[in-house]
Amino acid sequence: MKSFGRPTAPLLVQLLTLTGLTLVAAWLMSTLLLFFLPPPAPDFYRVSEIEQTFRGAAPVFTERRPLILTEQDRPPSPVLEGKSIPSIRDKIAENLGVPSSRVVIAGERGPLSDRRVGRIIRDRVARAGMSEEEHFLISPFNVGVRQADGRWKVVHPEVAFGLSDWQQRVALWFALSALAMSPIAWIYARRLSQPIQVFADAAERLGRDPRAPPLEVKGPAEVATAARAFNEMQERLRRYVEDRTAMVGAIAHDLRTPLTRLRFRIESLPEEQREKYASDLDQMEEMITATLTFVRDATKAAERTPLELSSLVESLCDEMAETGAETEVEPGEKVILEGDPMALRRLIANLLENAVKFGGRARARVFQKDGHAVVEIDDDGPGIPEKDAEKVFEPFYRREPSRSRQTGGIGLGLAVVRSIARGHGGDVNLVNRVGGGLTARVQLPL
Q1: Which CATH homologous superfamily contains domain 302-445?
Q2: What is the pLDDT of residues 121-160, one digit of tens each?
Q3: Residues 396, 409: contact at Cβ < 8 Å?
Q4: Which residues make Cβ contacts (< 8 Å) with residue 54, sequence separation at least 6?
């Protein structure tokens, strides 16, 4: 009996818990980034470095992005404001020999949100050997000087491509946090997906064995409700199949009584008519016997055990060969599966008998493919039309128009074969071979 394990919280509670843990983890990660990761320090440039760039002799920078000189028709914007901006603008204008009205300092900058950034800038200024009176601009900025022709020369730091060092550190923190949360997410995902996998296994097991034990009603409330519904559905299906099978068996059994009365009544008929009626009654009797055998086998719960399918096919071919039938088995791998030994023996025997009866000989092979055990039986017969490929599996359907018991049989052989194959979770089909002959292919899940 498949179990969901010990009782757990409802799926809704588990999903809310997972979501809450994710939010808490994101909040903790943001807090750590805010208090422990050093803030990004923007690049700063001396006024003298900006002036050199305007003169065409841009200095070389090793730790800062280089300054770029461009020309444009309009002045840069928006204009920066601040206590030191007018003096910086006057200083640049004086050194370049232009009026202050022709110099514009633009950029987008708000107040520094972290005092640590200010301290970092002061430390870097001190390391650069600059005095406190020396002016500088913090990136990003645009310094424009209007030329005599009305165009503007603009100096600005080179635009960075890719991630900066600080951004790389943040990305690394995110990656490490995601890696740390992965085991927790995996555990929760497995807990949430386990009931679904249990249902999938139960549905697959039900297809192979209608008498499979019911699911144990445990786990989250939603899963327990679904398990009860699944068990009720399985029980209804089992009762439906058993009731219909029992009804067919009862009808076949009850037909024996009127057949017996008919046998007594035909005794008074002329010899010629009596032989014809007796032949029909014998055929009906054989059909009833075959039906009762089919019903008995279908309702009998047989234990399924591991068996070696290749050896089973070989033994059946040897038994038929001893009676004069032309049968052979191709050498192949050993294939082991769990099944009803008697039912599978009947399945293979019916296919071998059909191959010998309608095709003259039977050639069998057993192999594994895509998680299935495959049994193929070839014959040298005329094959079957495509339109009859499914009809031949219907009970009492015979392609032999004469309805002769010697040539057409009762019409239950292939129906029994398909019933046994599907009862094991597999199937059987007939395929016409290129060049003539028919192949019966049985697939059973390992």
Answers
A1: Histidine kinase-like ATPase, C-terminal domain (3.30.565.10)
A2: 566 555 655 554 567 787 888 999 999 888 999 988 887 7
A3: no
A4: 69, 96, 143, 145, 153, 155
Cis, peptide link before residue 59, omega less than 30° from 0 = no
Going by C-alpha positions, the residue among 259, 344, 346, 333 that lies closest to residue 303 is 344
What phi and psi values does residue 399 have, to the nearest 5 degrees? -80, -15
Contact 286, 410 (CB under 8 A): yes
Query: Token match 């035909």: residue?
Result: 266
- CA 131 from centre of chain: 66
Digit-coded pLDDT (tens) for 208-248:
666 677 777 666 677 777 777 877 887 787 777 666 766 76
DSSP state of 110: -
Note the Cα 215 to chain centre separation in Å. 24
> String of b and e for 304-316 (b: at least 16 CB within 10 Å)?
beebebbebbbeb
Cα separation, 156 vs 75, in Å, equals 13
The domain limits of the chain are 44-163, 302-445
Q: How many whole angstroms separate alpha carbon 290 and alpha carbon 393?
A: 15
What is the number of other CB atoms lying within 10 angstroms of the CB of residue 270?
8
Residue for token digits 């004086």? 94
The predicted model scores a pTM of 0.47
